[in-house]
Amino acid sequence: MPEFSLDPAHVEWCAALRALAADRLRPLAEKGEPGRVNRPLIAALGELGLLERLFSSGALELCLLRESLAHSCTEAETALALQGLGAHPVASAGTPAQRERWLPEVVAGRAVAAFALSEPDAGSDAAALALDAAPDGVGGWRLTGEKRWISNAPEADFYTVFARTTPGAGARGVTAFLVPADRPGLTGSPLDMLSPHAIGALAFDGVPVGPDDVLGEPDQGFRVAMGTLNLFRPSVGAFAVGMAQAALDAALDHTAGRSAFGGVLADLQSVAHQVAEMATRTEAARLLVYAAASAYDSGAPDVPRRSAMAKLLATETAQYVVDAAVQLHGARALQRGHLLEHLYREVRAPRIYEGATEVQRSIIAKELYRRHAAAARTIGEGARA
């Protein structure tokens, strides 16, 4: 593909976002309680017009937004991304009434959304989910079962819930529902996780849902889920790139000024080469993320492969870069409150959620072999013609 570079307007916008996150959003994030939804932070994202961008931007602008926020304030980035993940199915597959009821509240930062796909025994294998949607005899369903590792649970105001409406049908038997948090029979509990964000479990005890709660079509919920994930996977990579860049910047500052062995750390070839490797991997991941997002925006046919590659490389790279930055800083980076201590806890989860690294490799391989088989058939047909 041709060389990729951002236009000056995008570069300027990203710089403004980084400054905005540092000056306006980070103070709100620091006042938040770990493991709880930070509603003042979400409200600020709405007031600044950033939540509206989730539904008006293309994939590339979404990546630039998430990367820029992540560089200066990971909590703000995550709060924004979770609003998008939970509400995007409403925007893309909801009825006019559903969109009118919830999207203005999400955009304003008044309603908290959540994407409820994972279960205790159905994480990476999303098609194996078992939350049961049993017909209630009057045209609706009753949801029974459990969701787990749900970001913003149990504090969200509504959930995009994926449940099995046709047993034994795999991905074809899943329906997406919009479930308000005050629906009878729905309860939740927080989970104490390594990440500082609100993550919880949801219990469904015969929760009533009807045709007006369906997102899209019955038994077509997996398509809703994959459409959302294909959009957000490159931007998860952008989140990772933002963290990697923050860690790289910290490493540059530290090694350029830290006295050691009669000079500064940057004078040591082993240190300089380590920083060069960190920078090269970060830039490679960034370009792959941008390429995947551009492919999504242009309607390219290979979006699943590109999205999977972007998430895979970017999240694995961020883990490497943050770990290397910690090593270059030494023990000070492990102190509570240090930027790298924070990033070290933040960077681990993206390699798991929205499709673990191993799942991304499976998607990439499947797409490669599918394309290979199609090319072989085309060659064979040409030879017979």
From TrEMBL:
<dbReference type="InterPro" id="IPR046373">
    <property type="entry name" value="Acyl-CoA_Oxase/DH_mid-dom_sf"/>
</dbReference>
<keyword id="KW-0285">Flavoprotein</keyword>
<dbReference type="InterPro" id="IPR009100">
    <property type="entry name" value="AcylCoA_DH/oxidase_NM_dom_sf"/>
</dbReference>
<dbReference type="Pfam" id="PF02771">
    <property type="entry name" value="Acyl-CoA_dh_N"/>
</dbReference>
<feature type="domain" description="Acyl-CoA dehydrogenase/oxidase N-terminal">
    <location>
        <begin position="10"/>
        <end position="109"/>
    </location>
</feature>
<dbReference type="InterPro" id="IPR036250">
    <property type="entry name" value="AcylCo_DH-like_C"/>
</dbReference>
<dbReference type="InterPro" id="IPR037069">
    <property type="entry name" value="AcylCoA_DH/ox_N_sf"/>
</dbReference>
<comment type="similarity">
    <text>Belongs to the acyl-CoA dehydrogenase family.</text>
</comment>
<keyword id="KW-0560">Oxidoreductase</keyword>
<dbReference type="InterPro" id="IPR006091">
    <property type="entry name" value="Acyl-CoA_Oxase/DH_mid-dom"/>
</dbReference>
<protein>
    <submittedName>
        <fullName>Acyl-CoA dehydrogenase family protein</fullName>
    </submittedName>
</protein>
<keyword id="KW-0274">FAD</keyword>
<dbReference type="Pfam" id="PF00441">
    <property type="entry name" value="Acyl-CoA_dh_1"/>
</dbReference>
<dbReference type="InterPro" id="IPR009075">
    <property type="entry name" value="AcylCo_DH/oxidase_C"/>
</dbReference>
<feature type="domain" description="Acyl-CoA oxidase/dehydrogenase middle">
    <location>
        <begin position="114"/>
        <end position="192"/>
    </location>
</feature>
<feature type="domain" description="Acyl-CoA dehydrogenase/oxidase C-terminal">
    <location>
        <begin position="219"/>
        <end position="368"/>
    </location>
</feature>
<dbReference type="Pfam" id="PF02770">
    <property type="entry name" value="Acyl-CoA_dh_M"/>
</dbReference>
<dbReference type="InterPro" id="IPR006089">
    <property type="entry name" value="Acyl-CoA_DH_CS"/>
</dbReference>
<dbReference type="InterPro" id="IPR013786">
    <property type="entry name" value="AcylCoA_DH/ox_N"/>
</dbReference>
